[in-house]
Amino acid sequence: MSSAPLLTEAFPEAGQVGQALRQAGLTVAVAESCTGGLLGAALTATPGASLYLLGGVVAYADAVKVALLGVSEELLAAQGAVSEAVARAMADGARRLLGADIGLGVTGVAGPSGEGAGKPPGLMWVACLGPGDALTAIRNVEDAGREGNRAIAVRLALRLCRAAIEAASSPS
Fold first, then answer.
1. Cβ contacts of residue 79 below 8 Å, gap of 6+?
2. What is d(CA 51, CA 37) in angstroms, rounded to the nearest whole number?
3. Quick one: residue 157, left, alpha or beta (phi over 0 = left, psi -120 to 50 = alpha)?
4. pLDDT by residue (tens digit) across 147-160?
5. Is the pLDDT of residue 114 over 70?
Protein backbone atom coordinates (compact mmCIF):
# COMPACT_ATOMS: atom_id res chain seq x y z
CA MET A 1 0.00 0.00 0.00
CA SER A 2 1.51 3.31 -1.05
CA SER A 3 0.96 6.45 0.93
CA ALA A 4 -0.65 9.49 -0.60
CA PRO A 5 1.52 12.53 -1.25
CA LEU A 6 1.26 15.10 1.50
CA LEU A 7 0.15 18.57 0.47
CA THR A 8 2.15 20.03 3.35
CA GLU A 9 5.28 18.59 1.72
CA ALA A 10 4.29 19.59 -1.82
CA PHE A 11 3.41 23.15 -0.77
CA PRO A 12 5.35 24.03 2.40
CA GLU A 13 4.77 27.71 1.61
CA ALA A 14 1.04 27.18 2.28
CA GLY A 15 1.79 26.54 5.93
CA GLN A 16 4.02 29.60 6.05
CA VAL A 17 1.28 31.73 4.48
CA GLY A 18 -1.23 30.31 6.96
CA GLN A 19 1.03 31.21 9.87
CA ALA A 20 1.50 34.73 8.50
CA LEU A 21 -2.28 35.12 8.06
CA ARG A 22 -2.85 34.01 11.68
CA GLN A 23 -0.18 36.35 13.01
CA ALA A 24 -1.59 39.29 11.02
CA GLY A 25 -5.19 38.45 11.95
CA LEU A 26 -6.20 38.33 8.28
CA THR A 27 -8.52 36.03 6.36
CA VAL A 28 -8.40 34.78 2.78
CA ALA A 29 -10.88 33.47 0.20
CA VAL A 30 -10.01 31.76 -3.07
CA ALA A 31 -11.56 31.58 -6.53
CA GLU A 32 -10.04 28.83 -8.63
CA SER A 33 -10.49 27.67 -12.17
CA CYS A 34 -7.59 25.64 -13.60
CA THR A 35 -6.37 24.54 -10.16
CA GLY A 36 -9.71 22.91 -9.41
CA GLY A 37 -9.50 23.39 -5.65
CA LEU A 38 -5.79 22.62 -5.24
CA LEU A 39 -5.09 26.05 -3.74
CA GLY A 40 -7.80 25.59 -1.13
CA ALA A 41 -6.56 22.07 -0.45
CA ALA A 42 -3.00 23.31 0.03
CA LEU A 43 -4.16 26.01 2.44
CA THR A 44 -6.27 23.55 4.46
CA ALA A 45 -3.55 20.91 4.70
CA THR A 46 -2.20 22.65 7.79
CA PRO A 47 -4.21 22.22 10.99
CA GLY A 48 -5.90 25.42 12.12
CA ALA A 49 -6.68 26.65 8.61
CA SER A 50 -10.23 27.51 9.67
CA LEU A 51 -8.75 30.51 11.49
CA TYR A 52 -7.79 32.19 8.21
CA LEU A 53 -9.36 30.44 5.19
CA LEU A 54 -13.02 31.44 4.91
CA GLY A 55 -13.73 29.35 1.83
CA GLY A 56 -13.45 29.14 -1.90
CA VAL A 57 -15.21 28.74 -5.19
CA VAL A 58 -14.08 26.34 -7.91
CA ALA A 59 -15.33 28.28 -10.92
CA TYR A 60 -14.28 26.02 -13.76
CA ALA A 61 -17.20 27.06 -15.96
CA ASP A 62 -17.62 30.64 -17.12
CA ALA A 63 -21.25 30.55 -15.96
CA VAL A 64 -20.03 29.98 -12.39
CA LYS A 65 -17.55 32.85 -12.69
CA VAL A 66 -20.49 35.07 -13.65
CA ALA A 67 -23.14 33.74 -11.23
CA LEU A 68 -21.06 33.35 -8.07
CA LEU A 69 -18.08 35.65 -8.48
CA GLY A 70 -19.69 38.51 -10.38
CA VAL A 71 -17.31 38.35 -13.35
CA SER A 72 -19.08 40.16 -16.17
CA GLU A 73 -20.08 38.29 -19.29
CA GLU A 74 -18.77 41.23 -21.31
CA LEU A 75 -15.34 40.89 -19.72
CA LEU A 76 -15.26 37.17 -20.42
CA ALA A 77 -16.29 37.75 -24.03
CA ALA A 78 -13.75 40.52 -24.57
CA GLN A 79 -10.75 39.10 -22.66
CA GLY A 80 -11.43 35.39 -22.40
CA ALA A 81 -11.49 33.39 -19.19
CA VAL A 82 -7.70 33.12 -19.16
CA SER A 83 -6.77 36.76 -18.75
CA GLU A 84 -5.42 39.16 -16.17
CA ALA A 85 -8.73 41.02 -16.00
CA VAL A 86 -10.68 37.85 -15.24
CA ALA A 87 -8.17 36.70 -12.59
CA ARG A 88 -8.53 40.11 -10.93
CA ALA A 89 -12.33 39.95 -11.11
CA MET A 90 -12.25 36.44 -9.60
CA ALA A 91 -10.06 37.63 -6.70
CA ASP A 92 -12.44 40.53 -6.10
CA GLY A 93 -15.47 38.24 -6.33
CA ALA A 94 -14.06 35.73 -3.83
CA ARG A 95 -13.16 38.46 -1.37
CA ARG A 96 -16.59 40.11 -1.62
CA LEU A 97 -18.60 36.89 -1.64
CA LEU A 98 -16.92 35.46 1.44
CA GLY A 99 -16.08 38.67 3.29
CA ALA A 100 -12.35 38.02 3.47
CA ASP A 101 -9.48 40.46 3.87
CA ILE A 102 -7.64 38.91 0.90
CA GLY A 103 -9.05 37.39 -2.28
CA LEU A 104 -7.07 35.15 -4.60
CA GLY A 105 -8.11 34.41 -8.19
CA VAL A 106 -6.52 31.74 -10.40
CA THR A 107 -7.29 31.07 -14.05
CA GLY A 108 -5.26 29.41 -16.76
CA VAL A 109 -4.71 26.64 -19.24
CA ALA A 110 -3.58 23.56 -17.34
CA GLY A 111 -3.10 21.53 -20.52
CA PRO A 112 -2.20 19.33 -22.15
CA SER A 113 -3.80 21.24 -25.03
CA GLY A 114 -4.18 25.00 -25.42
CA GLU A 115 -7.26 27.14 -25.90
CA GLY A 116 -6.51 28.56 -29.34
CA ALA A 117 -4.31 31.40 -30.45
CA GLY A 118 -2.45 33.07 -27.63
CA LYS A 119 -3.66 30.66 -24.93
CA PRO A 120 -1.07 27.87 -24.81
CA PRO A 121 -0.79 25.22 -22.10
CA GLY A 122 0.87 26.74 -19.04
CA LEU A 123 -0.57 30.21 -19.51
CA MET A 124 -1.78 31.19 -16.04
CA TRP A 125 -3.02 34.41 -14.50
CA VAL A 126 -3.07 34.71 -10.71
CA ALA A 127 -4.42 37.76 -8.92
CA CYS A 128 -4.56 38.92 -5.32
CA LEU A 129 -6.79 41.62 -3.90
CA GLY A 130 -5.50 42.52 -0.48
CA PRO A 131 -6.37 44.86 2.35
CA GLY A 132 -6.73 48.45 1.24
CA ASP A 133 -7.79 47.19 -2.18
CA ALA A 134 -4.19 46.58 -3.26
CA LEU A 135 -4.53 44.51 -6.43
CA THR A 136 -1.66 42.56 -7.95
CA ALA A 137 -1.47 39.97 -10.69
CA ILE A 138 1.18 37.72 -12.14
CA ARG A 139 1.37 35.84 -15.43
CA ASN A 140 3.03 32.50 -16.05
CA VAL A 141 3.82 31.08 -19.48
CA GLU A 142 5.96 28.09 -18.52
CA ASP A 143 4.38 24.76 -19.53
CA ALA A 144 5.29 22.16 -16.93
CA GLY A 145 2.57 19.65 -17.86
CA ARG A 146 -0.94 19.60 -16.46
CA GLU A 147 -0.11 18.82 -12.83
CA GLY A 148 3.02 20.98 -12.89
CA ASN A 149 1.03 23.92 -14.26
CA ARG A 150 -1.55 23.58 -11.52
CA ALA A 151 1.22 23.47 -8.89
CA ILE A 152 2.90 26.56 -10.37
CA ALA A 153 -0.40 28.46 -10.17
CA VAL A 154 -0.83 27.50 -6.50
CA ARG A 155 2.71 28.63 -5.68
CA LEU A 156 2.17 31.94 -7.47
CA ALA A 157 -1.07 32.52 -5.55
CA LEU A 158 0.68 31.78 -2.26
CA ARG A 159 3.50 34.17 -3.19
CA LEU A 160 1.03 36.98 -3.95
CA CYS A 161 -0.88 36.27 -0.75
CA ARG A 162 2.34 36.44 1.27
CA ALA A 163 3.21 39.78 -0.33
CA ALA A 164 -0.26 41.14 0.50
CA ILE A 165 0.11 40.06 4.13
CA GLU A 166 3.53 41.71 4.36
CA ALA A 167 2.21 44.92 2.77
CA ALA A 168 -0.72 45.01 5.19
CA SER A 169 1.56 44.36 8.17
CA SER A 170 4.24 46.91 7.34
CA PRO A 171 4.00 50.36 8.89
CA SER A 172 2.90 53.06 6.47
1. 85, 86
2. 19
3. alpha
4. 999 999 999 999 99
5. yes
